[in-house]
Design brief:
The complex is a heterodimer of chains A (about 300) and B (about 100). Chain A has about 300 residues and is α+β, with helices and mostly antiparallel strands. Chain A has ten helices and five strands, in the order αααααααβααββαββ. Chain B contains four helices and five strands. Chain B has a three-stranded parallel sheet, covered by helices on one side. In chain B, strands 2-4 form a two-stranded parallel sheet. Chain B is globular. The N and C termini of chain B lie far apart (about 35 Å). Classes of the chains: A alpha+beta (about 300), B alpha/beta (about 100).
Chain lengths: ~300, ~100
């Protein structure tokens, strides 16, 4: 499947997610809701977030990350569902819909700064303080009124800027003496990722997937170079790199698999919970590992991601 | 010495062209300098070519080096290719 086809599937999933989220939010507004209503809204936003990250729609991914975080708090009972809170969620939904329209080239990318600020403020407010939420809603209303949306970039995202933003947060392994800690092998989830030829031939960018994994707290432990051929056999449209990563033990495999939803046919994923590197199923590593490797990791910090 | 200047946009088309240049340089067996100074965009496709060139040179005992490029180095770090390409970090190739 080509990247355009994958995008089309994602756009359809966005449409379905927006319908589900809107229905749930309207139920919240009417007072006729239960726990499943909130779960449905959460899952819809979460799904959009997953696909947006895998396909490089960073603005949409960034916004859904914060929207999802607040929804997660709500479903955990951290916030009372007040009319002010519902008003903010409806506003966030509108911004989400604008983001989806923007990646489809139908609208300019929305200025979501004010809405993001409100989501963050509520997320950090003590148990959904009614005062804080009311102030936030007011601030958003003013900000939206003066917003001047920037022109959309269509689907032509700036890969270098994204990579640069992430790469600048990578800690050196040893050389500069910063955060060159050995991985705490116990209690982590090992992951081997190897994009296959289709992942690149179809216009995909595997580094985006690393970025998504970083979002889950992944640390890069090793890069598998064993598939790189001699220069005479090099195919610019083939995929040769693989990566070993450690994820926090709290990470559910489903969270990782969601990242690869749109590229799963083109990637090898292999999990391991023991102390050795996960052994990729095919093909075998060229350089055998005699004993369980002591892993050093590069921390992929989430804090400074765009 | 063969000096090969990488394209600003290192997409698959650019990599195709540079592959031919690199093969010609390897055939000559001379020292190779890959100039990355003008690279403005690079992802997995471009990094793979650089990694392939460096490893192929090592196997042939041909001297090869990459000129400084903050962008390429940053991206290489993300992909765990820093030591291989710039020899500044411990190997990420099955870290021992």
């Amino acid at each position: 499947m080509k990247i355009e086809g994958i995008q089309d599937i994602f756009f359809q999933e966005c449409d379905e997610g927006l319908i589900q989220a809107e229905a749930g939010l309207l139920a919240l507004q009417s007072g006729a809701y239960d726990d499943e209503t909130i779960n449905t809204i959460f899952r819809a936003v979460h799904s959009i977030k997953g696909g947006s990250g895998a396909l490089g729609f960073t603005a949409l991914q960034h916004f859904t990350h914060h929207f999802e975080s607040l929804l997660d708090q709500i479903r955990n009972g951290d916030h009372a569902i007040t009319s002010d809170l519902v008003a903010t969620l409806l506003g966030a939904f509108d911004t989400l819909a604008d983001h989806v329209a923007a990646i489809r080239g139908e609208k300019p990318e929305p200025d979501d700064a004010a809405m993001l600020a409100s989501l963050k403020m509520i997320s950090t407010a003590e148990n959904g303080s009614a005062t804080a939420i009311a102030e936030t809603v007011g601030a958003v209303a003013v900000a939206v009124a003066v917003a001047d949306p920037a022109p959309a970039d269509d689907l032509d995202f700036d890969l270098s800027a994204m990579i640069d933003a992430l790469g600048s947060d990578l800690c050196p392994l040893d050389g500069d003496g910063e955060q060159a800690d050995d991985c705490d092998a116990g209690g982590t989830l090992g992951l081997y990722v190897r994009p296959l030829n289709g992942a690149i031939a179809n216009g995909g960018e595997p580094l985006f997937l690393l970025r998504e994994l970083a979002d889950l707290g992944a640390s890069l432990c090793a890069t598998d170079l064993s598939h790189i051929p001699d220069i005479e056999d090099f195919d610019p449209r083939a995929s040769y790199l693989g990566w070993h990563l450690d994820l926090p033990s709290s990470t559910a495999r489903e969270q990782v698999e969601e990242i690869f939803d749109f590229v799963e046919e083109d990637c090898i994923l292999h999990f391991s919970t023991d102390d050795s590197f996960p052994t990729p199923p095919v093909p075998a590593l060229a350089r055998p590992v005699g004993s369980p490797a002591r892993r050093r990791c590069v921390t992929l910090s989430l804090d400074h991601l765009p | 010495m063969a000096r090969i200047t990488m394209s600003p946009i290192m997409d698959s088309d650019a990599v195709d062209g540079h592959l031919d240049e690199l093969k010609a340089a390897f055939a000559r067996g001379c020292r190779i300098v890959i100039d990355c100074g003008g690279v403005a965009q690079i992802g997995t496709v471009g990094l793979q070519l650089l990694a392939c060139a460096v490893r192929s040179a090592q196997h042939r005992d041909i001297e090869i080096s990459l000129t400084d490029s903050e962008l390429v180095e940053t991206t290489a770090k993300l992909a765990g290719l820093n030591e291989l390409l710039f020899a500044r970090q411990p190997s990420l190739d099955m870290v021992k």
